[in-house]
Amino acid sequence: MKVNYKIWFEDDDGKKFFGKGAYVLLKEIKNTNSLNKASKNLNMSYSKAFNIIKSSEKTLGIKIVSTEIGGANGGGSTLTEEGLQLIREYERSMSVFDKVSEDLKKEITRN
Fold first, then answer.
1. Helix residue spans in 8-80 (DSSP H)
2. Cα separation of 91 and 86, whole Å?
3. Is the pTM of this model over 0.70?
4. What is the mean pLDDT of residues 1-25?
5. Considering only Cβ atoms within 10 Å of each terminal Cβ, which end of the chain, N or C, has fewer?
6. Which residues are CB-contacts of 28 (< 8 A; sequence separation ≥ 6)?
7. Are 64 and 83 in contact (CB under 8 A)?
8. Per-residue pLDDT tens over the stretch 18-30
9. Which residues, in sequence order, are bridge partners of residue 66?
10. Largest Cα–Cα distance of the chain, in whole Å?
């Protein structure tokens, strides 16, 4: 048996702005240094990936991805410090919920 859950972040009005999909996207951008490559690796359209990032940035009022277009190095995307912090907060939240889930499982199966 397993106690399951989903984690997402909402604004003060209850609008979801960051969840597992956005988390996985940010991690892939971090690994590839490219929004385009990240979206391809995740079988996601570039426009969807772009909109996920822009929606989160708009809600938070901060940049989470920095993009450089073209140039000598061919451009690319990197996470800002705020984007990296968002990953850390999501991972911390998952860790806390994993512990709670495991504790609930133990409590339920004991009874």
1. 20-32, 35-41, 46-60
2. 9
3. yes
4. 90
5. C
6. 37, 38, 41, 42
7. yes
8. 999 999 999 999 9
9. 78
10. 65
